[in-house]
Amino acid sequence: MILAIDVGGTKMAAALVGPDGVPRRITRVATPQHADAQTLWKTLTDLIDPLSGGVAGVGVGCGGPMTWPDGEVSPLNIPAWRGFPLRARLAARFPGLPVRIHNDAVCVAVAEHWQGAGRGSADMLGMVVSTGVGGGLILGGRLINGGTGNAGHIGHVVVEPEGGPRCGCGGHGCLEAVARGPALTEWALSQGWTPSSTATLNRPLTETPDRETPGRRSTGRETPGRGSTGREAAGRGSTGREAAGRGSAGREAAGLRGDGRAVAGPGIGDPCVAGPGIANLGAAGVGAAGVGAAGVVAVGAVGVEPYREDRAVTGRALAADARAGVEVAVAAMRRAGRALGIAIASATHLCDLDLVTIGGGLSQAGEPLFGPLEEALREHARMDFARRVRVVPAALGQEAGLVGAAALILAGESY
Hints:
The chain contains 10 helices and 12 strands.
């Protein structure tokens, strides 16, 4: 078993993950807001200690930026951690074991390529749209790191160069500054939005029982609620790419991916099909699926309650209100969707992508987000080769960061 850890600005999560890619004994806790560095570290160690016995390695996804390959992290949305030696601290806690770390959005992309909606795609971008906007780039079937580990850093593609909002990176008009959850909720509140769904969406979750995750069998086979992206559901057993460890000195800790944030919370509302080539990640609970116009299956999210977020107004509440037709919330999702479509068109032209997967809390909004995204994508992806790109919802839900973190150890030759 691999101890998989996912650290983001909204939550911290941990699980035990076997070679089948199935997380077990998943635990989650809200990331303390305005806490000091030691409090954050204690929160993490309290989370992982019950899972630490007998593991064969540690895989970590964390918000960035971080030094690469040393794994000193400075997440933009965790201000108390600046140059925090996360990998070194974990390596000291688990002497003799492989410890690998990458940006949390990269881990989501890796998970979707390894076990989720991106299986079978050689050239894809995996995105997370949540507390921040991040991404990971797979080309030729392998994770692309870039010279400093920053390849796939789509959150800081500029989508509003004139008069765009200031970004945490210091620039203006970045995709993240427009589309990340906190920025959207702030914009919606400034336009007169009154949240109507926070109370029902901000319920506590401390631990998932030690049993198979709903919708995934121990044999590794897909089950209802885990539809495939236009093809038959594939098994979740060995892919022939699993390895005991990375094996290369200097690559034990893969690194910097900017500030993509935490993975998706539970699905909100019913399955919904967006425009051509896009299907929305759908309902809370297992077994819900719908078919998109391009044969893409809308996948039901795992039916577990969310952790309690340590903030008053969440992107999940905004997404739920958009699904309910609240005018300002719909306008906010349209603003985010168009920014995402423009950025994806640019990435597709640059990298010749055949697939983009989108996860994260805001991806649960359905048609209010994916409709404008598709519209903007088709407006801007004008070259013939770029028109073939498909955008699909991430299939692994809030498990994805943990699955990808484990893959850094289990399938290290590809990632």
